[in-house]
Design brief:
4-stranded antiparallel β-sheet; Immunoglobulin-like; mainly beta; 3-stranded antiparallel β-sheet
Length: about 140
Amino acid sequence: MTKLTLGSYPHMLGFEQLERLLERTAKSAEGYPPFNIEQTSDNSYRITLAVAGFSERDLSITVEDRQLMIRGKQADDGGERIFLHRGIAARQFQRSFVLADGVEVGEAVIENGLLHVDLTLSRPDTVVQTINIRKG
């Protein structure tokens, strides 16, 4: 069976970068930390990550090349604490989300062990362009 790619469709021009982005994102999907994505209105979304034990200074949020990157790394406590049982994950993480054109990252709030990142989608105006045909 042949794998279908966006390049397999002759009317889909210039989507090679999108295909690479989708493949990279699919490979980087791991299960920690768990997250939700909810639609809060017709043009807004909220990503919520479970970040128990992380403070706002342990987290960083960046957007680069249409990719939202959320990283978490807790400060080393220097081994001062002795755990008899450690069931709360404290490992560093990196979660990435591919953003469509027109998606803007808004406010980020941490409360009750949950990190909320709000996104808005601005709908671009429809542009119609007429191309003149000249005789060669």
